[in-house]
């Protein structure tokens, strides 16, 4: 009885994991921030969570050891090639609202409503069809393609002291699918032996 229940549960989990999401997707992007363009010992991390159903973008960042004091921070998009190059600012200018300015270390956590023009750089909206929905689509595509980065600017490096391209970490969903499929294989072998 337990084997049958376990088999059904694992099969349901596997089907759930491989079925396409019909309504919403929440994608988490991470970045390690470093001074690739400016000679900086500063470091940081960023997590950006995009929710296409709620049309939100949560930005979390932590940074320390900057040579200069912060003057701005935002997301740039979309570079010509994944994980390299530079691009214009997509999000708020001159800086994220509430980002700690005038400091060499700090943390930040803010969720932006992408249906509001105030969440965007007006130039990014114009360059991407002139509508908030087209700007959101362009940013979502840039994030998914590895063509967006979070940049922290300082008075030491006005063009950006530390930055990092936003990428999806190793997919946990694939790991869960693998576990479910292994479980199904174990249950199937146990049935054949019985």
From TrEMBL:
<keyword id="KW-0732">Signal</keyword>
<dbReference type="InterPro" id="IPR010895">
    <property type="entry name" value="CHRD"/>
</dbReference>
<keyword id="KW-0812">Transmembrane</keyword>
<keyword id="KW-0472">Membrane</keyword>
<dbReference type="Pfam" id="PF07589">
    <property type="entry name" value="PEP-CTERM"/>
</dbReference>
<feature type="transmembrane region" description="Helical">
    <location>
        <begin position="172"/>
        <end position="190"/>
    </location>
</feature>
<feature type="signal peptide">
    <location>
        <begin position="1"/>
        <end position="24"/>
    </location>
</feature>
<dbReference type="Pfam" id="PF07452">
    <property type="entry name" value="CHRD"/>
</dbReference>
<keyword id="KW-1133">Transmembrane helix</keyword>
<feature type="domain" description="CHRD">
    <location>
        <begin position="25"/>
        <end position="171"/>
    </location>
</feature>
<protein>
    <submittedName>
        <fullName>CHRD domain-containing protein</fullName>
    </submittedName>
</protein>
<dbReference type="InterPro" id="IPR013424">
    <property type="entry name" value="Ice-binding_C"/>
</dbReference>
């Amino acid at each position: 009885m337990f084997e049958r229940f376990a088999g059904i549960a694992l099969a349901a989990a596997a089907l759930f994991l491989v079925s396409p999401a019909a309504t919403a997707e929440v994608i988490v992007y991470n970045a390690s921030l470093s001074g690739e363009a400016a000679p900086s010992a500063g470091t940081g991390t960023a997590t950006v969570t995009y929710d296409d159903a709620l049309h939100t973008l949560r930005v979390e960042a932590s940074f320390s050891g900057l040579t200069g004091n912060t003057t701005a921070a935002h997301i740039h998009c979309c570079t010509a090639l994944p994980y390299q190059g530079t691009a214009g600012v997509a999000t708020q200018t001159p800086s994220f609202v509430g980002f700690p300015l005038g400091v060499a270390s700090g943390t930040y956590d803010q969720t932006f409503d992408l249906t509001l023009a105030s969440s965007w750089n007006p130039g990014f909206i114009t360059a991407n069809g002139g509508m908030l929905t087209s700007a959101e689509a362009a940013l979502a595509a840039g994030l998914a393609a590895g063509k967006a980065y979070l940049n922290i600017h300082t008075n030491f490096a006005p063009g950006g002291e530390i930055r990092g391209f936003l990428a999806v970490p190793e997919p946990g969903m694939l790991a869960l699918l693998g576990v479910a499929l292994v479980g199904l294989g174990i249950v199937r072998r146990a049935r054949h032996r019985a």
